[in-house]
Amino acid sequence: MRVGSQASGSAERIAKGAVRVVIPFCLAVGLTALAVRPSRSQQVQDTRPPTGATARCRDGMYSFSRHRSGTCSHHGGVATWLNPAAAFNPPRPGDTTQAIGSVSDSPMPPREAAACGGACGAERWAVKTLSDADRERVNLRPVNTTIEALIAMQRPVAPSPAGRTDPVEVTVYQVEARLLWLFTETDNDYHLVLASARDTTITMIAEVPDPGCAGACASGFASVYAQVRQKLLDYLNSPQSVARPLVRITGVGFFDYIHGQRGVAPNGIELHPVLAVEFP
């Protein structure tokens, strides 16, 4: 009986020690998962550079500059020349340096193979992923605005399942907001709940498609979506991350069907898809 008691006591001490080790580990993993909840499909992403890109910048963005001067000047400099000849072309009148991450004036990339990727979403999916027939009408030059201004816009009576509503859904908007929540939806989109920087009770949604999903991978923006998603993860899992961080989001205006989504605006407006993210 004494031996049995000693064995029982040893087992109990081992079990308690295991609990002390396992609980902190689970808490650490759980908090990380709760903050971002990355999906399995995110592990394999399309990392091909966008069509027409000449250089990859040090911060991961792509430049379409046709000459050396100024390329990636706002993105930490050039990490890799994708077209070595571009490094030696002299500047020409009208040449500009653009990076996908900054969106402004970037050309609309061509569509990729329409049959790529797996099925993820359904409602207005082509419009959500910039793979619809009206995508060429979207002006990629961002318009600075506020969440208050966006949620005050008139909602269309019945958003078209496949078409875009002028002018909101052919406009790219940029807002500064507080990031309250980030989690993965059933369609693998990253769902961001944004709040007014002045009043966190005023909210709207922004979403970043999974580049491996049909529509997203065919849009020509798959690498952009992958970069934005990775940038969000890198920041939120970094020591610099703070609660409710200030974020600058750039995305296409979009009216979603209202069905009780977390953070949904009264008029259902979203920034969908998100094309760039910064943490000022």
Give the key terms:
globular; single chain; 22% strand; OB fold (Dihydrolipoamide Acetyltransferase, E2P); 9 strands; disordered N terminus; 2 domains; five-stranded mixed barrel; alpha+beta
The largest beta-sheet arranges its strands as 5-6-7-9-8
Q: Largest sheet, described in full?
A: 5 strands, mixed, barrel
Distance between the termini: 67 Å
Q: Given the structure, what is the number of helices?
A: 4
What is the CATH domain class of the largest domain? Mainly Beta
| Shape-level CATH architecture of the largest domain | Beta Barrel
List how many beta strands DSSP finds.
9
Shape: globular
Q: What low-confidence regions span 5 or more consecutive residues with pLDDT below 50?
A: 1-8, 13-46, 84-101
Strand content: 15-25%
Count of discrete structural domains:
2
Order of helix and strand elements from N to C terminus: HEEEHEHEEEHEE
What's the overall average pLDDT, rounded? 77
User: Radius of gyration, rounded?
Assistant: 23 Å
Return the structural class.
alpha+beta
Per CATH, the superfamily of the largest domain is: Nucleic acid-binding proteins
| CATH fold description of the largest domain | OB fold (Dihydrolipoamide Acetyltransferase, E2P)
